[in-house]
Amino acid sequence: MIEFEETISLATKSIWRNKARSGLTMLGIIIGVSAVILLISLGQGLSNYITDQFESLGTNQIYVLPGAGFEGFGQGPPNFAGSKLTLKQVDDISKLGGAIKTAAADNEIPSSVKYKGESIVSTVAGVSSSWMQMSNVEIGRGRGLISSDIEQSRNVAVIGQTVTEDLFGGSSPIDKKVSIGDANFTVIGELSSLGTQSIGVDIDNFVIIPITSAQRTFGIDNISTIVVQATSKDEIDAAVDKVERYLSTQIDEDDFSVVDQSSLLDTINQILGVLTASLGGIAAISLVVGGVGIMNIMLVSVTERTREIGLRKAIGAKPSDIRNQFVIEAVSLSVVGGGIGILIGYLGSVAINQFFPAEVTLWSVALAFGVSAGVGIIFGVAPAVRASKLDPIDALRYE
Length: 399
Description:
Elements: H1 4-17, H2 19-56, E1 61-66, H3 87-94, E2 100-115, E3 118-127, H4 129-134, E4 139-142, H5 147-151, E5 156-159, H6 161-168, E6 177-180, E7 183-191, E8 206-210, H7 211-218, E9 225-230, H8 236-248, E10 256-260, H9 261-304, H10 306-314, H11 319-352, H12 362-388, H13 392-397
Parallel strand pairs: 3-8, 5-7
Antiparallel strand pairs: 1-9, 1-10, 2-3, 2-6, 2-9, 4-7, 5-8, 6-7
């Protein structure tokens, strides 16, 4: 019986003799492993980014959304267009006391914002005064919105730094007038930078105006979101109960959903989890294709080396020795290809993370590498068994 170390040596020499073919055989595994790692890292990075954004807002916030869809995952999105939430309800909720600290209104509408000859499309948020404190935004220049701005429906605006750069060239925007919709608004403040561009959205491209002014400008009477701040994280359940009991006396239960950040985040992560698994599954198909490629090459190799196999059997090699050699060759191609794929996937994720949140996880690396090794074993067995069953006399006669 041939020593196992010698079998490994023979398998390594066979791979090395056919460098080009071995490289092309590994290519399918390399592409598959790198694709799996890249796509899973994108899904994980997006999930972490959203979690960080929620945590930056604080962990004691509750959201009231129109419709009953968001409480039950899969029942459909909130019905913002048919919202029955009102400013009076926001004011009443903020006065409930107990577990509730305050409440704020938030309507976010994409709109063009113009200054002289310049124009950009921005997210215009109509908010009540307490929203500024609840959202943890900071004012870099000027001032933020105050209660009298909302009460008197003043045409004033607080703008993000991207708006300042695009419309004013970076110079001070304070006391200058911008056009939003058909109305002119005086800029009273500029937000400090909220961060760089992430997930394709510039979070500094933001304009904040009084909710009452937004309703008048855009002809909207309802509220798309009511943000409620509980007195502490421990009081969230009590605050949710208070809000639900109050709103049930104002509108039908099917007309609103009350969710806390953890519930909302769980729902979003469920969606992202399904998306990540789907993308990973699609990428894994290329691993199967790579495995088929390995099997085809190994079958061709068995045919090409028929005389060699017959000669080895004639001088004492057992079927198990022949089988082990071909299995080792197939697994080696898969493992080396998997290792290269992991390196490419990691470096690709690092590069993508400069523009889009991406994070390589240990489990995705282990999964991709394990599958690549498994592919080598599964698709290498059939050619190996075929080689081990060749009759030495017939093999020696093969031309």
